[in-house]
């Protein structure tokens, strides 16, 4: 019987309860990491190849 969300197990792994409080992005061009409300381009190199790395991890 499960007692809380922290007891949920998928494929014999406990789910990481990480929950971001702000958006955190990484530029795939230069590797710079930064926070922003909505990133469309890297402020360091201008590349538009940025990804949101503040997603829940499982």
Automatic annotation (TrEMBL):
Domain of life of the source: Archaea
Matching Pfam families: DUF7129
Residues annotated as domain DUF7129: 15-58
NCBIfam families assigned to the protein according to its UniProt record, in alphabetical order: rubre_like_arch
Name of the featured protein: Rubrerythrin-like domain-containing protein
Organism name: Halopelagius longus
């Amino acid at each position: 019987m499960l007692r809380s969300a922290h007891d949920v197990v998928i494929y014999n792994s406990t789910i990481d309860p990480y929950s971001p409080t702000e958006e955190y992005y990484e530029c795939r061009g230069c590797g710079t990491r930064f926070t922003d409300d909505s990133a469309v381009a890297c402020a360091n190199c201008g590349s538009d190849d940025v990804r949101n790395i503040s997603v829940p991890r499982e």
